[in-house]
Amino acid sequence: MRAIRDTLAHFRDVVPFRIVPAAIATAVLLTLLLLPRPEGLTPEGWRLVAIFLTTIVAIILKVMPIGVMAMMAIVIVALSQVTADSSAGAMRDALGSLSSPLIWLIVVAILISRGVKKTGLGNRIGLLFIRLLGRRSIGIGYGLAACDLLLAPFTPSNTARGGGVVHPIMRSIASAFGSDPAKGTQGKVGTYLALVNMHANPITSGMFVTATAPNPLVVDYVARATGGDFQLSWTTWALCMLLPGLVCILAMPLVVHLLSPPELRATPDAPRFAHDELVAMGPLAPKEKVMLGTFAMLLLLWANVPAMLLGDAFLLDPTVVAFLGLFALIITGTIDWDDVLSEKSAWDTLIWFGALVMMAEQLNKLGVIGWFSGGMRDAIAGSGMGWQAAAAVLVLLFVFSHYLFASTTAHISAMMLAFLTVGVQLVPADYVVPFVLMMVAGSTAMMTLTHYATGTSPVIFGSGYVTLGTWWRVGLAMCVMQLAVYATVGLLWWKVLGLW
Predict the structure, then answer these.
(1) Distance CA 87, CA 93 (A)
(2) pLDDT tens digits for 141-185?
């Protein structure tokens, strides 16, 4: 009996999952498999639905690290043979998405962003903005937002950008003013700066394909839903989101200042603090110069500037450009091969992102997405609402259902393709593009809602500067503000661009 107890205690200590959430996820899987198969779905399609929904539930409940849960999904898909007649064919399907250029774009961009932290360039950029704008608390807020915006095109881990680069700068500034949760003085300036730190992140994440990991998945879903009629290249995405994104980033520090005003309005010592930190860092190091040069090269090539000047022969795929940038950093010694191998977040992203993309692709191939979107379309059409109301309902339902998700990627994987498909079917052809772009904007605006909405959220919330009630209240207001800006400024901007 003692040996059994010792064995159970051993597994309780070392097995990488939480028992109760794991039991719930297992119950969900068994219940779905035992339920009668819905009419219109094949047996294989229904089994894959059960696997997919169980994976999403496991991610929401944080049963295990997301990479482990993704590997679990790969194993189950291969063993159950829901996508092929043999285990070899099912294994090829399960691993098929790992070769996707979109996934590798994000993986390589994460590896590139390691150089931002290693060289200290991210800190330097943030401190430069604080020195320039930091005489008032709202100016510091704009400095933090500007730093996030400048780094966004090159850091697809929004958590690394907002939580790993900008957040330490924000905490250092708050501490310099004696604003510390441990002392109960977070309201001096820390709460305000933490909220700005957080809410700059979703805005900048929505402005570039390479600003957060799920964006390439959104690109893929948009192309599928529109039958390839509307493609979001790196340049097209950046151009479409440029003006509404800038309006949001300009309005956000002011709106947060009104919703959660700091006790300190004037901060004359902040520029001095930033100046002293910059002096301690010394002049721009050679590796920082290489990093800046690589950023410039990536931006020019992602924006297709050579192709615009010299012709289509110089058009490069965004993933090719990313690999070129990574190679440039390695051969110049800015980062080394050990940095590449040790960047766990990149390889973790390859596994979990690949598994989710794979299941979404297979759900589409097995007709599940078409079946679900058809039922949703019929329900909306049967309600008698006009297409404008239907489009608004789809966007709002998609965005605010994020209260149920602790992963932006999981939410997008679970719902976005179906919602896009329904919208494309219900909205007149002339207005499909603005609907699609509103859905794209919503896919990052929803990151503001909760303290678990995206990876950046728990990092900033865990620092203790913002209470739960303030977080949810300001988060809801910021989400509504972003949607309102895109529904007004965005629609006008897309009209000017000739997209509808």
Answers:
(1) 10
(2) 998 898 899 888 877 778 778 877 788 788 878 887 888 888 888
Instruction: Give the highest mean pLDDT range of 6-10, 407-411, 447-451.
Output: 447-451
Tokens 């295990």 belong to 64
Cα separation, 500 vs 495, in Å, equals 6
Q: Domain-by-domain residue ranges, the chain?
A: 1-98, 102-344
3-state helix, strand, coil in the chain (%, to 5): 80, 0, 20
The secondary structure of residue 465, as a DSSP letter, is S
Residue 81 burial (CB count, 10 A): 17
DSSP letter at 136? Answer: B
- The upper half-sphere exposure of residue 87, i.e. CA atoms within 13 Å in the direction of its Cβ, equals 4
pTM of the model: 0.74
Average pLDDT for 11-33: 82
Largest CA distance in the chain: 78
Q: How far apart are CA 137 and CA 261, in angstroms?
A: 9
412-472-136 Cα angle (round to 5): 110
Q: Read off the DSSP letter of residue 236.
A: H
Task: Report the SS3 class of residue 191.
Answer: helix
Give the separation between CA 412 and CA 205, rounded to whole angstroms. 14
| Average pLDDT over the chain, rounded to an integer | 86
The three state secondary structure string of 440-454 is HHHHHHHHHCCCCCC
Dihedral-angle region of residue 135 (phi above 0 means left; psi in -120 to 50 means alpha; beta otherwise): alpha
Q: Which residues contact 218 (CB under 8 A, 6 or more apart)?
A: 232, 412, 416, 440, 443
The per-residue pLDDT for 178 is: 81
Residue 308 scores a pLDDT above 80: no
Question: To which H or E segment does residue 35 belong?
Answer: none
Cβ neighbours of 462 (radius 10 Å): 10
User: In degrees rounded to 5, what are phi and psi of residue 136?
Assistant: -130, 160
Q: Does the pLDDT at position 15 exceed 70? A: no
Query: For position 8, what pLDDT does the model report?
Result: 67
Q: If you ran DSSP here, which 8-state letter would residue 312 be given? A: G
Q: Which amino acid is at 241?
A: M
Sign, Cα dihedral of 246, 109, 450, 138: negative
Q: How many Cα atoms sit within 13 Å of 326 on the Cβ side? A: 24
